[in-house]
Known about the structure:
Blueprint: H1 13-26, H2 39-46, H3 50-62, E1 66-69, E2 73-76
Antiparallel strand pairs: 1-2
Amino acid sequence: MSQVISRSNSEFLYQQVTQLVRDLSSQGSLLPGEKLPSLRKMAEKLNVSIPTVKQAYQLLEGQGLIEAREKSGYFLKSSQLNQ
């Protein structure tokens, strides 16, 4: 998964993480209602910082694509991620 995130890419890292979540959903690797990897696990897998992943998750949450559940993490709300 780390080869998906590129520091030489013109997009910011958080934008690449956001696109990765969208891609995982469209490929069926993440299903509606399914929990996303924790901030720490996703950061470790992608070799980015936790704040980068948090920014991506917050962007997706603001777009209504995922939801944060207190003390539970982030969950995919809908399969409509390619709006």
